[in-house]
Amino acid sequence: MSTTLPPKPSDTPEPPGRAPSGFRHELYPYRGEEQFLTGTLGFIHEALEADEAVVVAVPPDKTSLLQDELADEPTVTFVDTATAGPNPGRLIAAWTAWLAQQGDGGRPVRGIGESAWRQTRSAGHLAELRYHEWLMNRAFAQSSAYSMLCPFDDTDEDQNALGALSRCHPLIRRDGQYMPNTDYLTDAVYPFDPLLGPCDPYQEISYTHGDLAAVRSKVSQCASDAGVCEDRRAKLAVAVTEIATNSIRHGGGSGTMRTWAEEAEFVCEFRDAGYISDAMVGRTCPPADQIGGRGLWLAHQLCDLVQIRSEPDRGTTVRLHMDIAP
Question: Which of 66, 200, 202, 280 is such that its CA lies 20 to 30 A from the CA of 151?
Answer without folding.
Answer: 280
